């Protein structure tokens, strides 16, 4: 077995979970397959660093003495938004030597400052996508995916997305069963594919201020197979269809139809991952009506049909 060195870069003001999340994934893989990964951490001068939450992390060594890794992990945090010029120089010089260069959250800002994302597609935490695009116009920023891979460089969205990306790398190295075992061990609710949106419907949409609209949001989530046309939802909110559609968008940030689409897709995904129900039944209970309608929704949004999605993301032991 080829042992892969994982080097996590540490600096003051990093988000602790950006490091510990992926590291726990690789550590879990090492427990499953001893010798698979060698995990190292390094800071500029080898001194301990203080994270945004106040935790202190003690590195194994300095960046000057660190070996060229197979996987170089650059976390995010406030310290990545205005990175130390010495860190940027080190990443610019050493990053291209890594087999795979990975950023978590706003760690993409460090890669961009080093010029390593120029001409590439990348993502970061949703709250910083506009800023990254504005400060680094040569980078093609995609604000939607959980993570993006462009050649040997991978960038991921906020915080826990680093776990999703690390699981994808483990799956690439050790296979799907290993990645799913680690995900279950870490009690990760959903091992998300990279092209999945950063938000669930409930997170992407704001919670409506008025109770009738909040009730409609809950109703949609609890009854994805119901008649969820605007007229029906408006009647439930005791509003005219036009007033309802306008108010729903104003208070949640998306149209009723878009919200319904997201809820139904998430419901179908979870049934594919967590149950052995047939595609036809899932399509019906998720509100699609037919397997073909569900297939079109999956291909349009996730880039893969339901059967392939289940093959990739459902644990073999799930009943």
From TrEMBL:
Sorted UniProt keywords: Transcription, Transcription regulation
Superkingdom as given in the UniProt entry: Bacteria
Residues covered by the HTH araC/xylS-type domain: 214-312
Keyword DNA damage: no
One Pfam family hit: DJ-1_PfpI
Any one Gene Ontology molecular-function term assigned to this protein's record: sequence-specific DNA binding
PANTHER family noted in UniProt: ARAC-FAMILY TRANSCRIPTIONAL REGULATOR (PTHR43130), HTH-TYPE TRANSCRIPTIONAL REGULATOR RV1931C (PTHR43130:SF3)
Protein name, entry field: AraC family transcriptional regulator
